Amino acid sequence: MNAPAYNFAYLDEQTKRMIRRAILKAIAIPGYQVPFASREMPMPYGWGTGGVQVTAAILGPTDVLKVIDQGSDDTTNAISIRKFFAKTAGVATTTATDDATVIQTRHRIPETALNESQVLVYQVPIPEPLRFLEPRETETRRMHALAEYGLMHVKLYEDIARFGHIATAYAYPVKVNARYVMDPSPTPKFDNPKMDNCPAPQLFGAGREKRIYAIPPYTKVVSLDFEDHPFEPYRFNAPCALCGAEDSYLDEIVTDDKGSRMFVCSDTDYCEGRQAAGHHGSLSAAPYKEKAHG
Amino acid sequence: MVDQAALENDQPLLVATSLSKSFGRIAACRDVSFSLYPGEVLAIVGESGSGKSTLLQLLSGQLAASGGHVSYRMRDGVARDLATLGEAERRFLFRTDWGFVHQDPAQGLRMAVSAGANVGERLMAVGWNHYGRIRDTASDWLTRVEIDVARIDDAPRTYSGGMRQRLQIARNLVTEPRLVFMDEPTGGLDVSVQARLLDLLRSLVAELHLAVIIVTHDLAVARLLSHRVMVMKGGRVIETGLTDQVLDDPREPYTQLLVSSILPP
Ligand SMILES: Nc1ncnc2c1ncn2[C@@H]1O[C@H](COP(=O)(O)OP(=O)(O)OP(=O)(O)O)[C@@H](O)[C@H]1O
Ligand SMILES: [Mg+2]
Ligand SMILES: [Zn+2]
Fold first, then answer.
1. Minimum-distance ligand 1 atom for the alpha carbon of B53
2. Binary contact (B130, A226; C-beta < 8 A)
3. Whole-number Cα distances in Å, A87 to A2, A48, A80, A81, A82
4. Pure H helices in A111-245
5. Pick from A294, B5, B136, B219: most CB atoms within 10 A?
6. What is the C-alpha separation between B205 and B126, in angstroms, rounded?
7. Which pLDDT tens digit goes with each residue over A238-247?
8. What is the ipTM, given to two decimal places?
9. Which residue has the CA at smallest separation from atom 3 of ligand 1?
10. d(CA B263, CA B47)
């Protein structure tokens, strides 16, 4: 084959410029959803075409890309996106959070703290936090414009009325820079505190909905709550069975058909890093390694 | 010493001046002027198509007038022309100092959200941030509108028509508005359900010293609730006065027909 028929990182320069303008506007108005002319990408919408377009627009030849899906670098989705950019942009890829300069994610924020030289790109399916209670787009836009966010608390009220506590576990609404209410969908609320005052810029791309929004570095991000039902980042009350971590977000894994379960870090890079550094959980690392790489 | 409350009651809450509205060639509302005082209930009656709903929309700033203006005395005592309010101010007014009770409760309620949240929404919109207090206040209001507090977590789509209407009233009154607009609030309800709703409205209006502008086909509703009546025909107010006077001793032939129920409702 001759020269590839596509531009660096697949999108043409004009499209990338258009997306960058949307990103710049999003950074200038933290939490505000900026419309953009979302392009067809050579993958289905459910695969995070919004995030892919943002990544394509910001990627440079020296970047090192990490892609995570449910905290793991090894799902089909994560592997495909990583391969896509390795091929179309020729960039280096990694699974190590520390080595990455651009991290595209679907559900999780890495456990390892991010730094100023990194960018976190989120793939977002539903950008509008008010959608659930107010389906009319004209009305939700007006609510954002006028900062009328009572409806957001109606949703939290309903949670408490029904379940006795705020049961929303994913896509938990936040207020950015004391102005716009934003949906960090579909990250677990455990990760919400990591968005606050984060040194790395956070960019959100929704492909089907054609929206880009952002949290600039070191921006205040507050999870909505009630005085008498304060926000609580949820995690299973257990150490990771593999690395013993007590501060990481855990996945529950069913280990046999008798209902035995174990809890392991959802962030596989973090877990493996801890194991390599000599940390142990209640189960030895060996069977897991076999499973993960078998 | 001057009694501040008495002084406030001396001044009109809302003043309409030469209000007009045309839809193309149809003059839905023509040259309507009146003043409404705190605690006063004004009924707007007239046949179908006479411009009652249009007038209500003009008065509540939901529709821009083709001519004339409406001024409203805000909580700070300053009278403002509605047309000069910014959208944020107008919407704020709408969910604090005003209420709007629709004939169709689905227009005034969130049908899929619990009754408690329906009542609590306005409180949350003005910054209440304590679940327990919001819920207690919602419970109080459900009781006041005679809804069993045990139904607080049920959505209004599980409520009867009369209950929905009472819930809509609670949802509006929770921020203690001074003025409530109502468009046929008893329309479509059974007679016995209507009677109960009217009783409730009457006692709430008196208790809360509410000003109300109520649009109705039903002269019995006007008689029971209102102090004053405006009779509309073809977009114009053709007769106005104290309710008993207008209904017992109408001057205009059209009003006489209305009162004698010769005109269809
Ligand atoms: N949005 C609109 N566009 C065009 N014409 C309208 C509109 N709204 C009202 N009209 C017309 O204005 C006139 C007054 O209508 P309005 O709804 O105010 O009457 P009404 O007294 O409330 O009647 P009803 O008792 O049937 O509710 C009617 O001729 C109606 O067709
Ligand atoms: Mg009408
Ligand atoms: Zn672990």
1. 22
2. yes
3. 14, 18, 10, 10, 9
4. 137-145, 150-163, 192-195
5. B219
6. 23
7. 999 999 999 9
8. 0.90
9. B23
10. 8
